[in-house]
Design brief:
Arc Repressor Mutant, subunit A, two-stranded antiparallel sheet, four-stranded antiparallel beta sheet, elongated, 3 domains, alpha+beta, 14 helices
Length: 333
């Protein structure tokens, strides 16, 4: 079958689907294992680099003990079923039949007969549409509402527990629990229906401790600067964003993959994640120094784009906050 963006092949034996392949990267066996939480991204990338015509990814996974043979077999079956079920949402494409010999080692025993798979695919298509009305996006963040919960299944209880912080997307929650996407959507929809969870489009929890205080203080400052500067200089945000991409080490390490938001703030959760693994004292120092560098970059842009009278009070706020934060973190010692 030729579809928009790739190809799929279904293999039949005596009228039953026994195997399927896909050129879509999201339906690769490695991606299926990653989505089920069986392998981490770095390990998957490393093993993929070793794949050749004589050594498959599955063989490497088992030989190196990354995945048990049973888990590999289940993932392969999930992969084939996923390839089939996603066909039901295709809007256009072409297909043809071809008589071929199927190698015995390709044949998988699927969980259902072909007739039942077709019925299941149609059911999933309808239910997915229903689920997404409440879920909105799998890249949104489920957050526990605080409502008392009772008689939860094990999977529901785990999802509720992981949703307490509100910092993981629905897709990430499914992976942590080891759920296939449709199964995860079904459970999440049930919790939304019971109003035990709500969906947020951004991480909603505040960052605790000194790191949270530093980030909140600087983000409030950046918001004030941008609100004032953009009234006078529309190109101000582009100038600051360009300067952030050219920051030297160690600031570029702390701010890697951090985008400047439209209001001038920075994603604190991403920054804290970049600092993970460091000692607390090093985290505070690197965070303070990096945000101080961003503030300095902003003041340079202010001096270029605003006249002295307009820039002076904003620059004074930057200097005052920087001194206050350094005193709070012992940066002047």
């Amino acid at each position: 079958m030729e579809l928009e963006g790739g190809l799929k092949s279904l293999y039949f034996q005596q009228g039953e689907i026994v195997f399927a392949t896909s050129s879509f990267s999201s339906e690769d066996l490695g991606e299926v294992l990653f989505s089920l939480g069986k392998i981490e991204r770095d390990a998957l990338q490393e093993l993929r680099s070793l794949v050749n015509e004589n050594t498959s990814l599955g063989k490497l996974l088992v030989e190196r003990g990354v995945v048990a043979p049973k888990d590999l077999w289940l993932a392969a079956r999930n992969q084939v079923e996923h390839i089939i079920y996603t066909l039901f949402s295709a809007h256009s494409g072409s297909f043809y039949f071809q008589a071929l010999q199927i190698e015995q080692d390709q044949i998988l025993r699927l969980s259902m007969k072909t007739q039942n798979i077709i019925m299941e695919g149609l059911r999933r298509l309808d239910e997915r549409s229903l689920f997404m009305r409440k879920i909105i996006s799998l890249d949104y963040f489920p957050l526990e509402t605080g409502k008392d919960a009772a008689d939860l299944t094990q999977a529901e209880a785990r999802m509720m527990n992981l949703a307490q912080a509100g910092q993981q997307t629905a897709r990430d929650l499914f992976r942590k629990i080891g759920l296939r996407e449709f199964d995860g959507m079904r459970i999440l929809f049930g919790l939304l229906e019971k109003r035990l969870i709500r969906m947020e489009d951004t991480p909603t929890t505040e960052i605790e401790g000194v790191l949270g205080q530093i980030l909140a203080a600087y983000n409030n400052l950046f918001k004030v600067i941008f609100t004032q500067a953009l009234k006078i200089s529309p190109q101000f945000s582009q100038e600051v964003a360009h300067s952030l991409r050219d920051l030297p080490q160690p600031y570029s390490f702390v701010l890697r993959d951090v985008e400047l938001q439209s209001d001038g703030t920075l994603d604190g959760h991403r920054i804290v994640a970049n600092l993970s693994g460091l000692e607390e004292g090093d985290k505070k120092k690197l965070l303070t120094d990096s945000l101080c560098e961003v503030a300095f970059t902003a003041t340079m842009a202010l001096r270029r784009d605003l006249d002295a009278e307009q820039a002076r009070p904003l620059i004074a706020r930057v200097q005052k906050l920087t001194t206050k934060i350094r005193e709070m973190t012992g940066g002047n010692e």
